[in-house]
Protein: Chromate transporter
Organism: Kitasatospora gansuensis
Amino acid sequence: MSDHQERVPLLTIAKEWGRIGCTGFGGPPAHILLLRRLCVERRGWLRPDEFEDGIAATNLLPGPASTQLAIFTAWRLRGTPGALVGGACFILPGLALILALAALFLAGDPPSWVLGAAAGAGAAVPAVAVQAAAALVPGSLARAGTTRAGRARWAGYALCGAAAAMLTGPWLVLVLLAAGLTEVTVRGRRLTLPLLLGALPATGGLGALAWVALKVGALSYGGGFVIIPLMRYDAVERYHWMTDGQFLNAVALGQITPGPVVQTIAVVGYAAAGLTGGLLAALVAFAPSFLFVLFGASHFDRLRADRRVQDFLTGAGPAVTGAIAGSAVPLALGLQLPWQYVLLALALLWLLAARRSVVTCLLLAAVAGAFM
């Protein structure tokens, strides 16, 4: 724990982390930048190397890495109270906004411009998935090493992840675990992990919603966009809480609102069981992030140094990348109008060729859709 524990007031943590929760448009890269500017550059609460170690440690964990970094940095300043206050203030502004938007977009008879804006933003979502996967490739490939065998395994893991995202629905988690354990075995080390099933028998209702949210928050290695294939099968195909078009809207809302992308699960919860479902889904999805930090932060240095953990991530990483890319296929197939495919093509050019902002892309697509 940091020596700043007694010095930084909880009110200050609430104000600063709440400000980031309100202004953190752009997903994890924006969150990391804002947290670094606050904790390292502006306030000097953490040294640069302390902050970088926090990024590395939280990236070893399943679930939303930028949320865990926000909780971890607040923990370094004021221990458990700081983590609870900072994490809550980081999450709640975006959660309130996304639930309000969910009520608008999922209303029984929304205005035509709302439907058009939703269809426009949803059309760009598959392009966002492709861009997210492309951004992960350089780092993941570098971790695999320069040997032909290592690169071949990387390609195999990525292909398995892509196929799993397109075909296996809730069993994607097992594919990610298998890729990581295979790499550990190939490198001659043993790693014991608890068996985490990708799907458990469920009869629907709040229990099923809680299980879907738990998979998003506790089992999604890679965080961010890898939650999309994990959620889609359950939300659209298994429990029929949403149509494909509504699910695309949910993903778009998770991208254009501030705070963590995992807020998308709140829209799924709202579709399943109204406001109660949205709040329950968010609570279950974010609870593991708090628990990982509160009970594991003091062990992060040892976790980072464990070669077995590093090997596991070397295998799971490309599977995650492939899964994110593979999720673009069912998302694109969910588009229903010809003009949506035109917007998708333009979004691909905007993100991959012009390398412009995801948030701007989704907002422009929403505006275009409102006029269609």
